[in-house]
């Protein structure tokens, strides 16, 4: 039986500069509640400190609020930029969330994606990848209940330990963000972490996906570990509607603002060409889906053909459409895309085909039985 593909979102978030930020954050919380009711399995929430669009600075604070509104959806830090934080205080925050959510929290890590964040803190981007590795490896010791003494050039722990044991054994699930460079794949392979491929559908990210997954598996094998493909998560932007025409009309609402932000931030592998219709270019390049549920199904099939099985597809939350149409897109995915990918209706179809295919004989038998009953009744009455 093929692996089930779970549904989720990757919420950076992206909010245009002409909207009230308080309402934006409230809508993000409302969206998570909506997804929980629809049955989505995961939501990952970002950490950013500059740029104006991605306005959640603490995914842990957001997750704490979202957890109180929801019942079953798992909530991940997408991600904590480890070089910006002391490993002890970060470990304590994650363990507290592990208890508050009764095990629904996931711990996503990265070195920090926005260079502007690092420069505000006087941190050189040259150091962040090594610091991420150092930080998470210290946290593993803290999760295991060790007392840690560790002096670094960016933090110092002296006989440090966490007060809480993890609620989740042996600790909350850990996933490493990976886009173009192999550093995320190496760290995931060394410790058997999951992999968050945040540029999975972009040209450079799509090309690097297979390479980084191979690196992760090779490093895992060298360390006596195996990475479960169920912990591989691919991220890509999607907006769907009942018709392609309606979907394209919807994304005129905020698509260009999103593209303009990305063109100015210029993240590696995620630049958007604004010399043409940027969203149209993304769709033509296979980086995004704007269309119908069938178009979304085709995108998943394309990724599966390239990658093989993976555990979760995370739709990149983007606000290309207004909020009502955005929520409708997520609903259409759950109603039509997910069951098609997971073949959820195969047995129903088989039952339908069997029942309708044999309908004449079944109906004849039922009519004969009814006639026989009536005949016996008439005889008995006479």
* Element pattern in H and E: EHEHEHEHHEEEHEHEHHHEHEHHH
Low-pLDDT stretches: none
What oligomeric state do these chains adopt?
single chain
Estimated structural class? alpha/beta
The helix fraction, in percent, is 40-55%
Q: Provide the residue-averaged pLDDT.
A: 93
The major sheet is characterized as: 8 strands, parallel, barrel
Number of helices: 14
User: How large, in whole angstroms, is the Cα Rg?
Assistant: 25 Å
Walk me through the structure.
The protein has 382 residues and is of the alpha/beta class. The protein contains 14 helices and eleven strands. It has helices at 21-38, 59-69, 87-100, 115-120, 125-143, 183-191, 203-222, 244-251, 255-265, 278-284, 293-307, 323-341, 346-357, 359-381, and strands spanning 6-11, 42-45, 74-81, 105-110, 148-151, 156-160, 174-178, 194-197, 232-240, 289-291, 312-316. The chain has an eight-stranded parallel beta barrel, surrounded by nine helices. Strands 5-6 form a two-stranded antiparallel ribbon. Helix 2 packs parallel to helix 3. The longest helix has 23 residues, at 359-381. It starts with 5 loop residues before the first strand and ends with a helix.
What's the arrangement of secondary structure elements?
Layout: E1 6-11, H1 21-38, E2 42-45, H2 59-69, E3 74-81, H3 87-100, E4 105-110, H4 115-120, H5 125-143, E5 148-151, E6 156-160, E7 174-178, H6 183-191, E8 194-197, H7 203-222, E9 232-240, H8 244-251, H9 255-265, H10 278-284, E10 289-291, H11 293-307, E11 312-316, H12 323-341, H13 346-357, H14 359-381
Parallel strand pairs: 1-2, 1-11, 2-3, 3-4, 4-7, 7-8, 8-9, 9-10, 9-11
Antiparallel strand pairs: 5-6
Helix pairs in contact: 1-12, 2-3, 3-5, 6-7, 11-12
